[in-house]
């Protein structure tokens, strides 16, 4: 059953020692996204450097104030020998020649101290003109040609720690990654490409990736942000990815962070967010997308060649597909004075790409439904949080995104509340919004349960069914537990646990039978460490109708990880299920060692790595045991309990 999971064996166990740190469970509000600033590139046009001799003029006109004309004439300097040693000698003591002070070139700042003139000219071939320039002035000229950004030195952010959520706001401890090998942690994070089988696993991984963590040993802070932002994009967390790339000053970007920023700003339909980057570190990046972004930025900043001309050139050269250029032209046209109508024809488009989807949303277009269906999950995850899309489109995408963990129960209720408040959403969505209202406000418990079950629908689409359970979590918590409603207890409890309402779910404990599905959920979700006896395990196994008794294997793995079953009972039950719970791989060794060192962030990263898959049938009880056990050991008990309960709820 562990086949297909040995990709974790490729991990390199070269990690250094990890500092310990306990994290607290908290929800972190997303910070507002800052608008891009305009940037200017200062340059130096040229310099004529004069030093040494003062050239006499014919018939000079005195520019000195009255009374200074009678000053004694300067004593001529002695003729210098044609060698460097003589040129370096100081002028005679009696000399009164006045040094020539050059004006500070435009773009330089601060006063420049005058330099004493040389005694005589250099012989041909004996020196470079740069040797005669004031070093301070030369440095200013060099600095003036570098890209500038308007962040004062005191406000520039350090790359020693990078992230969005600080520890005091619910993030992981910063020191968790301070002593880790950069190569080791990069392999884990880059290797997590998604999707994850667990909704709670995604919530945990998003929190860990977004935390403000110390830059690992041997890694650049910008690259540390880049690999986490890219993984957030891979699992559908576009908003968190965008905030991550914005945690680094634009002047400190590396190519990998530039690529992550391109994906993040396109996924959030804000291509103009790339403008500060294209004006600085990415100014020389090659590729059609970079060329088109630069043209768009020219349109919005009025800096550089006309945007439409640049995009026309890209179209003529065939550097990008026609629809990609047309989308860029349509967006740039919003800021351009060119009166040009751009029409997007989707009939010739075979597939969606991040560029096409992001630019379409940025221009107020919605890609056709057939292209969205063909593109699949990654684009539904983006659509669920896109405020420019119609509410019905977002609600349809939410039926997938909530099961993944991208949307919370509260966010789902907010979305349906907007559907209820508007009268033009069609009978289908208006009816569902009305049913959600009935689930909260119907007069009798039976009517509320009926409305809740109507929203769940059938089990033909597991992702949709689980997303609807996320939607009804708080409505399910309002149902009064009773023996009469015990037939629906397992589904109501599973719905409550999608939002972490474990204490509400425990109110059903007196009304569920030993060994039932609902009993298994409560045995794992309960905050207390009540041991489970073998009779309950055997009864659960007898009632298990899952393929290969996978649900029973997950129950055993969860109870073992939470230390809620004795060793003898666990061994006996594992033998009945024919599962070798002692099997080890490199990944299991890695997560166990991370837990032993009490490193919550590293445990969360390794747990995310181990939960990759399209469904819970791709997970094994052995891996679930090590995930739940490691989370429990480092103090992430809430996540451990919810992941264990989710496992048996979704099989």
Gyration radius from CA atoms, angstroms = 34 Å
The overall pLDDT average reads 83
Q: Beta fraction of the residues?
A: under 5%
Helix content: 40-55%
Find the structural class using helix and strand composition. Answer: mainly alpha
Please tell me about this protein's structure:
The chain has 651 residues and is an all-alpha fold. Among the domains are: 402-511, no CATH class; 513-651, no CATH class. Helices cover 47% and strands 1% of the residues. The protein is built from 30 helices and two strands. The chain has helices at residues 84-87, 135-144, 182-190, 199-210, 221-234, 238-245, 255-267, 275-278, 288-301, 307-317, 322-332, 354-362, 369-375, 377-383, 391-404, 409-421, 426-441, 445-456, 462-471, 473-477, 489-498, 502-506, 517-525, 534-542, 550-561, 567-577, 586-596, 600-610, 621-633, 637-649; strands at 161-162, 213-214. Strands 1-2 form a two-stranded antiparallel sheet. The protein starts with 83 loop residues before the first helix and ends with a helix.
């Amino acid at each position: 059953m562990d086949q297909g999971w040995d990709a974790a064996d490729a991990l390199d166990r070269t990690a250094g020692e990890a500092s310990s740190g306990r994290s607290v469970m908290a929800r972190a509000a997303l910070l507002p996204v800052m608008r891009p600033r305009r940037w200017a590139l200062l340059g130096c046009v040229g310099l004529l450097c004069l030093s040494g001799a003062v050239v006499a003029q014919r018939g000079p006109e005195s520019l000195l104030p009255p009374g200074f004309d009678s000053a004694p004439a300067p004593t001529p300097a002695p003729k210098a020998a044609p060698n460097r040693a003589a040129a370096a000698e100081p002028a005679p003591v009696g000399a009164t020649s006045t040094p020539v002070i050059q004006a500070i070139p435009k773009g330089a700042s601060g006063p420049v101290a005058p330099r004493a003139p040389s005694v005589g000219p250099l012989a041909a071939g004996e020196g470079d003109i740069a040797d005669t320039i004031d070093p301070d002035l030369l440095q200013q000229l060099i600095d003036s040609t570098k890209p500038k950004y308007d962040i004062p030195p005191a406000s520039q952010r350090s790359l020693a720690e990078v992230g969005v959520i600080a520890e005091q706001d619910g993030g992981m401890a910063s020191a968790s990654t301070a002593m880790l090998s950069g190569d080791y942690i990069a392999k884990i994070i880059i290797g997590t490409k998604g999707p994850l089988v667990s909704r709670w696993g995604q919530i945990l991984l998003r929190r860990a990736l977004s935390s403000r963590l110390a830059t690992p040993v041997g890694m650049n802070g910008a690259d540390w942000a880049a690999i986490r932002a890219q993984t957030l994009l891979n699992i559908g967390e576009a908003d968190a990815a965008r905030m991550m790339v914005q945690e680094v000053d634009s002047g400190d970007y590396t190519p990998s962070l530039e690529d992550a920023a391109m994906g993040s700003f396109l996924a959030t339909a804000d291509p103009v967010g790339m403008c500060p980057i294209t004006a600085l570190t990415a100014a020389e990046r090659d590729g059609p997308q970079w060329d088109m972004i630069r043209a768009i930025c020219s349109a919005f900043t009025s800096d550089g060649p006309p945007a439409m001309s640049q995009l026309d050139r890209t179209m003529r050269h065939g550097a990008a597909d026609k629809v990609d250029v047309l989308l860029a032209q349509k967006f740039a046209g919003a800021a351009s004075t060119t009166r040009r109508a751009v029409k997007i024809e989707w009939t010739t488009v075979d597939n969606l790409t991040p560029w096409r989807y992001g630019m379409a949303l940025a221009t107020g277009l919605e890609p056709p439904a057939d292209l969205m269906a063909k593109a699949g999950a990654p684009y539904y995850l983006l659509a669920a949080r896109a405020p420019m899309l119609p509410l019905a489109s977002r609600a349809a995408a939410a039926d997938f995104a909530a099961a993944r963990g991208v949307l919370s129960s509260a966010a789902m209720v907010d979305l349906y509340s907007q559907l209820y408040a508007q009268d033009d959403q069609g009978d289908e969505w208006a009816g569902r919004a009305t049913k959600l209202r009935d689930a909260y406000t119907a007069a009798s418990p039976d009517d509320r349960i009926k409305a809740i079950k109507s929203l769940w629908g059938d089990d033909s689409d597991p992702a949709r069914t689980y997303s609807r359970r996320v939607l009804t979590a708080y409505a399910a918590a309002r149902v009064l537990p009773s023996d009469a409603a015990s037939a629906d207890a397992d589904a109501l409890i599973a719905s409550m646990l999608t939002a972490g309402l474990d204490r509400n779910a425990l109110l059903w404990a007196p009304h569920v039978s030993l060994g039932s599905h609902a009993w298994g959920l409560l045995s794992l979700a309960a905050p207390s460490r009540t041991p489970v006896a073998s009779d309950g395990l055997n009864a659960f196994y007898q009632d298990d109708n899952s393929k290969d008794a996978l649900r029973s294997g997950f129950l055993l793995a969860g109870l073992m990880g939470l230390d809620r079953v004795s060793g003898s009972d666990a061994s006996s039950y594992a033998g009945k299920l024919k599962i070798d719970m002692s099997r080890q791989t490199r990944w299991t060794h890695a997560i166990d060692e991370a837990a032993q060192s009490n490193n919550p962030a590293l445990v969360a990263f390794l747990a995310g790595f181990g939960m990759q898959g399209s469904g819970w049938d791709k997970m094994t009880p052995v891996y679930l045991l090590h995930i739940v056990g490691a989370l429990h050991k480092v103090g992430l008990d809430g996540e451990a309990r919810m992941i264990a309960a989710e496992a048996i709820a979704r099989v």
